[in-house]
Amino acid sequence: MHIAVLAKAVPDYEVPAGDFELSGNRAHERYTRMIGLYDENAIELGVQLKEKYSCALTVISYGVEKDIKVLRKAIAMGCEKFVLVTGNSDDPYVIAANLKMAVETLGDVDIVLAGRQSADMDRGVVPGILAGILGYNFIPQISKVDKTDGQWNVNQITETGSRQLAFEGNAVLSVTDDASNVPRIPPVRRILAAKKTPVEKLAEIESDGMPAREISVEIPKMESTCEMIPVEDPGQAVETLLKRLKEERYL
Amino acid sequence: MKPALAAICLIVSFGYFIWRVVYLLRLLAVGKKEKRYDQIPRRLWTTVQQSILQISQFRVPKGDYIYAGIMHILIIFGFLILLPGEIEFIISGFVPDFSFSFLGTPLFNNFLLFQDISIFAVIIGMMMAFFRRFVLRPSQINYHLSAYLILCCICLLMATLLGMNALRLVHPDEAHFSAIAHDWMPITTYFVQITGISGVHPVLYEVLWWVHLAVLLFFLDYIPNSKHLHVFTAIPANFFRHYPPPLVKLPKIDFDAEDLDSLGVSKVEDLSWKQLFDGYACTECGRCTDQCPANSTDKALSPRDIVLSIKENLFANGQMLLSTPREQWAEADRVALVGESIAKDDLWQCTTCGACANVCPVGNEHLRDIIEMRRYLMMEEGEAPELMSRAVKSLEARNHPFFGTGAGPKDWRKGMDVPIFEEGKTEYLLWIGCAVTYEERAQKIAVSMVDILEKAGVSFGILKESRCTGDPAKQMGNEFLFNELAMQNIEEFSDMGVKKIITMCPHCYHSFTHYYPELGGAYDVIPHPLMIQKLIASGKLKIKKDAKTITFHDPCYLARHNNILDEPRQVIPALGSLVEMPRNGKASFCCGGGGGNYWAEEEGTRINQTRAKEAFETDADIIATACPFCLLMLTDGLKKFTEDEKVFDIAELVALCAEDL
Amino acid sequence: MKTLIIEIIEPNRLGELVTVSKMFCDRPDLVALGEGVIPGNFGKVYQTEERIGANLVPSLIDLIRSKEYEMILLSATIVGSEIGALLAARLSSPIVSEVTGVSADLEIEKPIYGGKALAKYRLEKKPVVLTIRRKYFEKDILDGTTESEPLEVGAKPVSLLGEKEEKTEGIPLEDAEVIATGGRGIGAPENFGMLRDLAGLLNGAVGASRGAVDEGWMPPQTQIGQTGKIVAPTIYFAIGVSGASQHLAGITNAKCVVAINKDEEANIFKRAQFGIVEDYKKIVPVLIEALKAEG
User: Fold this and answer.
1) Fold of the domain spanning B542-659
2) Which residues of B touch A30 (CB under 8 A)?
């Protein structure tokens, strides 16, 4: 069994809105780079599956070389191999085409796991496009995976609950966060070992981008002054709050 | 008959004693090697002061400790002086009627005098001990049966000695002894007078003699099986202890080493021989636990239990360790040190304040044990309390532990024109540190300090972007992350030519001073109270005195860990009048923010509220401190008692009162 | 532009998509997923009981190609996630997900960087696929009903083994006028009981931030935020919630945010209209009592 996990380095997604700035239509380069939030859930799920089924686990990323040290965390968490397709496009079609090339280069990938949404572009479309061009099944918002008797069973989180789905063959699964896939803190030994793991670098391929043009990226103005209610006496504070809510006709 | 029987008793008793001591030494060899014989003259002199002259008893001036210190001086000096008497006693088992009278005047006379006084001193000591255990009842000592057993043994020893001496005093055949004793053994003589002993009682004397021998030998053999081992181990413990500064030194881990065996401590063999020896030296006095801020606020952590649990774990696994080859220890069946002998939760409650290490009369290294076990949990198991883990993750990701902060790295200096450090142009680097950058209340410390340095005409600059020294990671046990952050800083400082650093946080000061040099970064580091004091003393800064009363909370990492107590106390009188809290200086009570516990949900009574209450009860107008974590913790803690904002950093106070020159 | 909406039969969701479609056409067509009567006035309606996106895609592609649809609209829900990208890949279409703004000349707006920035794109080829974020568009009043014809669905590579519904007591989050949300600061699952009491008194619903969900204290269906539910209540109580931008993205259109957090530096206070810096355990019970007293 061979599982591939997609991971992407993004700018710090916890920068407070007050400190967030752009340069050249993208987040300023001063922000620390890190693996996306949902990507880490996907890596964690991948590592759990590796531990359960003793399968091979490869992390695939499309990105730039300077992000390699950030992506090594995936290895420290448990991935054995690291494939990087070098390129810096943000276009979902270009990214998907290159990830497809990487998957096909590996040759024997059964399942591709991905985070449900990247923490920078917030799109969640690349995994689906990848599945489409690979001809794999695609199921988003997965929390659990297991394989029994040649059939894959997954648990999908929906707006109203969950669905248990099954399929055979290959699939791309996008992973959502769940109490069962909180990303592990890698032990320091693994971090040290990950530094020595070789990175297989693939050159990006020519591919058509999405027929769309980015016009602008702006930071919307967030004006709000918060009326702080004094709290020496909780009873008084509550009274003031209710009074104000009524005055503003919210209640 | 008597010599033969005495000989048998001695051989059996000494034989067991040696066998047991050899066992203890073999167990000690389980620990890692560690060099503790540098600075020998200093070690010798300090050992004499602390161990023999008993200065170690009075480091923290608490009433109960002083009482116990005096009591212990009586007992220990009593015993030391009685030792030659015991030798005389034992020889008399083989050579009938042996005595040291051949020494002649004045040696023998004084010998008898000192024996007499010593018996009395020890009896007083015993009375003090029983009074303490039954009436005073301090909470930190052990009220086990073994303690009473020993006290009774000692009482018996003194009683039998007194008895034998009294009988000899009145014995008609002992005229020579009697004559001298009447003048030179006043207490025994008085005892004879008031009890009216007279005549010859050979059987009673023999009974007393054998009881004394039995108890003495029992005591000897009991020593290596009880806390009384400290009788022998306290002196070497003080010799081999770690000598400040700093108060506690954590060992360096070389992450690039080929044979990296264990990160941190999870088993007894991961500790050094000295850390194992601590268990042998521990007198179970309980002062460490008594001084511990976590323990004082109903938490389970007890530094004494840490040291004793290590010892118990060593004993529990002793057979296995001594009979199995070292390579097989990892897989062998054993009682786990971390998790079984010591509860993991306890380890996280430590604020690393160092009160335990400061008060311990035998120089035990409880704090080092705790941090080394945290290292194992953090770095090998990836286990840590939730909020601490988030702080560590934030440190990894964005170079500061203050997850959830709404502040950006430059917010503290918005609207200010602060010089940037440039080699050759600026003398000092003013290191901002993470707490001051990202916590709104603490940002004022930096603003004040910039103001002070500019007014005093000091040449300084800051880094464009503030970050953390890595110290919180170190305290929480993630030594790897600390190394990474430190190396980043060292590289940058090297590129920029930084040589002198002013810190506004004692934790930063501590890491720069004690842990950066071994990673390649040696700088001249000045904590800000010292800088301010120097500027005032040299006239570069003039302060207008105010009429307010100020109490000073000594940050643990200035006063206890680094012996910096005087300089803030030289600055405060320039601002107002100083009022001391009951626990001040090196006996200062922690604010609760260290050891990563700034990011913790505290159980039980809150440490910061406890200290804030103490400060509040001095009725001082202002509570001053010199650490951003103390500032934040005390500000929060004080809210329980008053709405007034009374907590300020010393820099803020000085900036308010500084005159433009 | 010939517009096709693909959605489950739920009037709020359908209504929002119809509003968007009205920018491009008079009457959109609809692929309705599920059984039941179709509310609203649509052109053609194709209906199927199949709810798994992977199984629907081949038939949808055939339909889109044969009928030459130019605009495909889905909601940014699991329907959109399952279907949108697969359609786009097969049709080589531009696709924009989580859309919050649309213009007739195909200028599309969507938030990025966790909601901290807004990106605008112009789409240059049809058909286009858009997944529309909930609650950003007013729902169209769906008058009348439309007859449907069945949509043939071929092979089904993914099978449904089972389905679990999270019982939401009371009003669903998307419809609630008052929401009380708990974050990591709540501390323990049982403390959500207090929030339920509060919400109950105001005829509202209880939500959770990602932090509380990751702890396992609340089910993922209650998660409010960029990857959870997007809500637009009149009053939003953010209790023990730090206010990360991804969470705030879920409440952009909430009218009044009341934040209760013991950390005065929490980011939520930058979004809130009213703030109380205190341990929620001291405030919420008092608030509950005050509301009870008012009747």
Assistant:
1) Rossmann fold (3.40.50)
2) 465
